[in-house]
Structure formats: C-alpha cells, structure tokens
Request: fold
Amino acid sequence: MTSALAGIEREGLVRRGQRLSWLTLVYNSLEGFVAIGAGLLAGSVALVGFGFDSAIELAASAAALWRLNADVDPVERERVERLTLRAVGVLFLALALYVTLDAVNALLKQEAPDESTVGIVLAAASLVVMPLLARAKRRVAIALGSRALRAESQQTQLCTYLSAILLGGLTLNAFFGWWWADPAAALIMVPIIGKEGVEALRGHDCCDDECA
Reply:
C-alpha cells in the first residue's frame, strides 16, 4: 500500500514538473522572440544575447520534458540526464562566446544602442516570472531526486540574474545615455553563462554538493 501511494505521489510530481516545463517553454518562446526582435531594432548586444539565452532555455525545458517522460524507466532516465547536461553545456559556452565577441566589438567601435522600452519591460517581467518558475521546478526536482531537473531549474534561476543585469544596462542607457552600459552588461553575463556551461559539460549541476 505504501509503495502504491509513493508511486501515485511520484506521478503527481511528474505531472507538476511537466506543467511547469510547458509553462517555461511558452514564456521563453515569447521572451526570446521579443528580446531578439527588440535587440536587433535597438542595436542592443545585451538584449539580443538575452534572446539567445531564451532559446537555450527552450532546449533545456524540452530536455526536462524528455526526462520527465522517461521517469518510469531508471536506466533511460539516467541516460537522458547525462545527455541533457552535456548538450546544454555546449550551448551555454557557445552563447558565452557569441556575447563576448559582440560586446567587445561594440565597445571598440563605440556603437551606442537606441533606447528600448520594450526591452526594459521584458527584463522587468522576467525578473518577476523566472524566480517563481525556478523555485517551483527546484522543489519538484529535489522531490524526484533528479540532477538533470535541478540543473534545468538552475538555468531558469540564471535567467533571473541575466534579467537583472539586462535591466540595469538598458535603464542606464535610456535615462543617462551611457552607451557603454549595454555591452558592459553583456560582458557581465559571460562568466555566469560560462560557469553553467563548464559545470554541465562535467556531467553535474552546480547544486550537486548541496543536494546530493
């Protein structure tokens, strides 16, 4: 009886995780589309980089759904976790390289981005939405004992930090005309993104020591 109840409880956690992953997919799709479009129009390196990060979040959420769908098979579950961690690691390192090159180029050329009200509103919205999603997904991940899902929830939390950095850069440019704040904000993102990429390539998430 106890085993049956535990199984039912786990199924409920899996369904909750799936709902949260789908919600993240929908939000990040909108976030990425708006960020890249607004960033290209304004010439904002940080905003475009934020949009590409949303695309990586989409891939991570899709992998989380794959992992959740494989929950009934322990062998398949572990295989999916290993593949997910390494694939996301490569994507994060590619993003870090892209942001670095574009930000350095903007600083050298002193290219001033236009103001982006849309970008400011988007960054502020993500600063509210992402922590809520990350906290809910982390609870499910810990309850299921999944490293891959913990890593995916950490990537959602990472989006919170990037939102704050982006909001700061866009606001300083809009209100004070500090053109360099945008590429500088982009460069601040790089070590955060790179660290996540390295951790994932090593086959574990940054919560391993805490949640082992």
Observations:
- The two ends are 28 Å apart (CA to CA).
- The mean pLDDT is 80.
- The helical segments are 2-42, 45-69, 74-109, 117-144, 147-176, 181-201, 208-211.
